[in-house]
Amino acid sequence: LAGALTAVTLRVGDLAGEWDRTGLLPLDLLHELGAEGRLCAEVPEEYGGWGLSSMHNGTYTAHVGGLCGSLRSVMTSQGMAAWTVRRLGTAEQSAGYLPRLTGGELAAVGFSEPGAGSDLAAMTTTVRRDGDSIVVDGHKKWVTAAHYADLLVIVGRYEDGAAAVVVPADAPGVRVERITDPLGCRAAGHADVRLDGVRLPADSVLGGYALPLSLLVTTALAYGRISVAWGCVGILRACLAAATAHAAGREQFGEPLAGHQLVAGHLADIFTAEQVASRVCEHASRRWDEGAPDQVVATVLAKHVSATQAARGAATAVQVLASAGARDGHPVARAYRDAKLMEIIEGSNELCRLMLAQHALSRPE
Ligand code: FAD
Fold this sequence. Notes:
By secondary structure, the protein is of the alpha+beta class. The chain is 53% helix and 15% strand. It folds into 3 domains: 2-101, Orthogonal Bundle (Butyryl-Coa Dehydrogenase, subunit A, domain 1); 107-211, Beta Barrel (Butyryl-CoA Dehydrogenase, subunit A, domain 2), CATH 2.40.110.10; 214-362, Butyryl-CoA Dehydrogenase, subunit A, domain 3. The N and C termini lie far apart (42 Å). The relative contact order is 0.12.
């Protein structure tokens, strides 16, 4: 793993700020990283992945998250697509799609719609059977990495349940409309996806049958949540490094900023945030790797704690750097904008709290 961390550090170099300003990641870099299996490193080796445990994949995701939130977001989407194929697809579908996802093709996952954000049960995208084909109609919103994607995993209503369908981005009837001005993760390739009578072979439906929508959503989002949680740990580590270096190096009132107790208090707060987020993520990944029954709640907890800590920690880091960090492209400015979005996606703060409350209420005496 150490070699992989160094390799991705070298590939990103000092370019993350420029990618943030231009709103684009280099496509050749994404294809290269994809072809080395680096964008979905949990995929087993038999499918061309690295077969990393959740703990090791988390460490890797945090590292990338500290370098570039947009690249980490693309990784999360790729990993979520691969996870959905593994969990819902047949053995043949895994054998068909996973080597493509570890071989350089890029993927994104679309749930959200104009009328179905937090309330995914309100989704209206339809998948219907027509002879040997299926036909997909709908409108997906804010799909991370869709601008770069070759394959789109689209969730829609199917018969009396729901289905996840693998849709080639260049299939007739697919239109990908880039969101050019997101608040954060600006180079993550967010896009709206319109699907207008998209006709595909029937075996494009993962698993080939209707599933309860809640099961399908929970399955796919589980990977997204743990990946975002670890990405937030990376944001906090980057903020801690930037804030401590700045506070140790710059003097005001005749001594280093860190010598002023209110500034030292900010550093303690960022360190605490990083430690708390790291521990909940390690706990969640341990539960994943053990296949423990409480892995779902551990994952929601990790996502919620890490996102809130990252949003707060990044704001504190900007405060410590003040004007030195107050420009687009600076690591703490990026972290501030990127972290805020982590409180919205893969289950907003409010939705996570509702899930955690439900869990608390359902616990045995
Ligand atoms: P709304 O659902 O309208 O919610 C607005 C506010 O009300 C939120 O604070 C919410 O928490 C709160 N709220 C809503 N219902 C309740 C309730 N019952 N109780 C308490 N509070 C409530 N979607 C995809 O499908 N794929 C992606 O890859 C993807 N990537 C994204 C990346 C980014 C950067 C962003 C911003 C969004 C992305 N989304 C993606 C969409 C994302 O999943 C939704 O934005 C999210 O689910 C919230 O939906 P909404 O924005 O419509 O907010």
